[in-house]
Amino acid sequence: MPMPEHILVETRGAVGLVRLNRPQALNALCDALMLELGAALRAFDADEAIGAIVLTGSEKAFAAGADIKEMKDRGFADVVADDFIGNRWETVLEIRKPVIAAVAGFALGGGCELAMMCDLIIAADTAKFGQPEITLGVIPGAGGTQRLTRAVGKSKAMEMILTGRMMDAAEAERAGLVARVVPAAELIDEAVKLGERIASFSRPVVAMAKEAVNAAFESSLAEGVRLERRLFQSCFALADRAEGMAAFAEKRKPVFVHR
Ligand code: CAA
User: Does the entry feature the keyword Methyltransferase, yes or no (predicted)?
Assistant: First the structure.
């Protein structure tokens, strides 16, 4: 992969860390950034040494949305021909390893939508979430009307999307949009610690757990429960399942080999 221009990539133990890094535009998600992000996520997904991925921005902004300056002169034919916004944005949904969004500052429009595409969100106490598209004469275009509604319910999603009002970290936690709020100075360390804990478990089992939870958003209850049962039963084909249960019975720590 050529050196990315708009993101910073590093590993912390078994955790892959991607930082959005366009400070001059509050990490607005231009096309080039989304392509770089997609490539970095795919590379971590393919790396056997990595068990979880943390996606973060800066102290001031996770991301202030799609790049308005890049978008402003596009016409209907352009966005249809390019399938804007789907084609470059949904890579995060194809990643099998858990992706944790660590959000400080603004997560607006496409920034909020990108965080919601991740498997879970940890917020700094400075985080602000919003879907301000209505103020620009558009509606959310990267899943905001669907994922925010599923996360916080119809009334709050409707209010935010119809008015552009932002929600602070405490409200986001109360509403169930974020898993946890932590002091801003501890955000990355907390997110990496969470990633490390996930990475300490069996990779195929983690992937199945993620798949099963995500199925709750795509299927009926009966279908979801059926998938869960089959995936649960599939765990019995793994050495890691035998090891996990044997270690419990023998009162020792399990050693998972990701097989
Ligand atoms: N696109 C392009 N540039 C952006 C941007 C965006 N989404 N958000 C901020 N910037 C740029 C600003 O233009 C400014 O650049 P200049 O210094 O060259 O003028 C720089 O980042 C710093 O921003 P501000 O000076 O505005 O910073 P602030 O602290 O005063 O305000 C803010 C912060 C409230 C987040 C404000 O920047 C803002 O409202 N940004 C736009 C938020 C928005 O509307 N997002 C939705 C985009 S549409 C979308 O995302 C569609 C979709 O569903 C996918």
Answer: no
